[in-house]
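Researcher: Go.
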Amino acid sequence: MTTETQQAPTPGQAPHIYLNRLEGLAEVLARHGLRTSLMAPPGRVPSLHVVNPAASALAEDVYAGRGQDGTWWFWWSWAERIATWDDLDGAAALIKQVLAARGQ
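Model: Structure:
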């Protein structure tokens, strides 16, 4: 497992770039039975709060951003990559696995 620094948004990057990617992931996560809330506080990078409805303590924030090589990724809150932004199903499967309750 490797971690990579996520690049901060540049002034020319509008928040809608992040929102569009996170909204697409939210749709796929909903099909996997997870609840999501899009968080877009002013002046901060948007995130997607993901919750396992069967065990609400199992929750995590997911971010979208470019890695150092320019590739867009979904990221855990601890700055570890989940999957590339175009692999919505792969990202959703991994998020669901991480947020799964025992026996789920």
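Model: The first helix runs from residue 15 to 31.
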